[in-house]
Amino acid sequence: MSIGRFGMHAKIEEPKTQKSGQAAPVRVMVVDDSVVIRGLFSRWIEADPDLEVAATHRNGEMAVKDVERSNPDVVVLDVEMPVMDGLTALPKLLEKKRDLIIVMASTLTRRNAEVSLKALSLGATDYVAKPETTGQTASATDFQRELLEKLKLLGRGGKRLKRTTTVAEPARRMRAEVVNDPHKGRAEVAGVRPDMRSAMRRNRSVMQPASGKPEITLRPYSSVVPRALVIGSSTGGPQALQRVLTDARESLLNVPVLITQHMPRTFTTILAEHLHKQLQLPSKEAEHMDVLKPGHIYVAPGGIHLKIGKQNGQAVTLLEDGAPVNFCKPSVDPLFESAAEVFGTACLAIVLTGMGSDGAHGVNVISGKGGSVIAQDEASSVVWGMPGAAARSGNCSGVVPLDQMGAQVKRILKGAAR
Questions:
Q1: Which H or E run contains 239?
Q2: Strand, helix or coil at 131?
Q3: pLDDT at 23
Q4: % of the chain residues with pLDDT over 70
Q5: Helices 86-96 and 110-121, packing angle to 10 deg
Q6: Cα–Cα distance for residue pair 412/409, rounded to 1 Å
Q7: Fewest beta carbons less than 10 Å away: which of 46, 174, 211, 405?
Q8: Residue 18's pLDDT band (cuts 50, 70, 90)
Q9: What is the C-alpha to C-alpha distance for residues 159 and 382, in angstroms, rounded to an integer?
């Protein structure tokens, strides 16, 4: 171990020994004004064979000065620090290393949640919510697991290694033509010509991707115009949600929109507020027994599962403080499963970017009840975990790039995408 030129608080680590044929460990820079947190994170990282500490710094200014020399793949960046805080350091770090993955780290205060969500719009890839005290952080095994999983997954791939293999290249070349023509847009997946439609319906499949990955089979859309839109998202989700809902805004007046975004408490409150400001539609954290109204957006509160039920013939929200599902709380599966039961063939679901496979079982239930599911494609996803699991299930009707998903949702809600 060597000491960096910025002094004892700017520690630079020696690289781990790499065995032949083994992938190089993901290099992580930890930036936090707490020496205890820096030490704790460093110990967790060094104990994982797939990670290594590139450097640790006590403020953003030191990190910016050192980022080119220490050359990390990922930076864990604290929000509140002296000299230079995380939000100020963020664009400076990206200016020096454009492909850098930055994960914001903050405690669960309203201000920190606001800053973290703003950081996502400025180029941060993701965030983690630190427990409120150092003692809680040291004993928080769930937090440790979440942090290390994100560092490995985002560092190994993230935005920099996305591939375009979710649909075949011939179909991909036709995407612009199909998406821009509402009559041609009736194919099962954005980017498939109308003359390919009959073959797709016969074998329910997209051609084998050039990479040799397993083909993605697709189902026809429901013939029923949707009466509800449910969305599941995780890593990269806040930006994706804003893009899809903004692009589809005029059609959202016809349906209630329910969202499960993997987020802790406070963050979900602010996400709902941001959606209200951007869309100028009623948007809130769901409360127990809210009657669902068209044109209204309901966000699952952090730490609570959001479901849909029926009361006196009306669809209502249900909040359930149960055990985590797929290690997640809120989880997408309870929302999707309950939406399928209440809305059946009139349910439209979207699975956006995110780690893991949460929502995959719910996708199967929605499909089994005759509803429709769209998954975000791999090339536009920050992490193609959740949408990839949905796409590979064979129960999606479309695998669509983010920049075309809003238009596709509009067509479906108007009954023009079948």
A1: helix 237-247
A2: coil
A3: 80
A4: 80
A5: 20
A6: 5
A7: 211
A8: low
A9: 5
In the structure encoding, which two tokens stand for residue 372, read together?
Answer: 């429709």
DSSP helix/strand/coil, 374: strand
Asked if 377 and 387 count as a contact pair (C-beta separation under 8 A), the reply is yes
For the record, the structure tokens of 31 come out as 């930036």
Cβ atoms of 363 and 371 within 8 Å: the answer is: no
Looking at 331-383, list the stretches that DSSP marks H as alpha helix, in order from N- to C-terminal side.
332-343, 360-368
User: What confidence tens digit (pLDDT) does each residue in 385-396 have?
Assistant: 999 999 999 999
Q: Which two tokens stand for residue 361?
A: 């079982």
- CB of 68 closer than 8 Å to CB of 51: no
Residue 205 CB partners (closer than 8 Å, separation 6+): 215, 216, 217, 218
Q: What are 26's strand-pairing partners?
A: 51
Angle subtended by helix axes 267-279 and 110-121, to nearest 10: 50
The DSSP element (H or E) to which 231 belongs, if any, is strand 228-233
Token output for 225: 């115009």
Structural contact between residues 329 and 218, judged by C-beta atoms closer than 8 angstroms:
no
Per the omega criterion (within 30 degrees of 0), is the bond before 170 cis?
no
Cβ 353 vs Cβ 345: under 8 Å: no
List the catalytic residues.
234, 262, 358
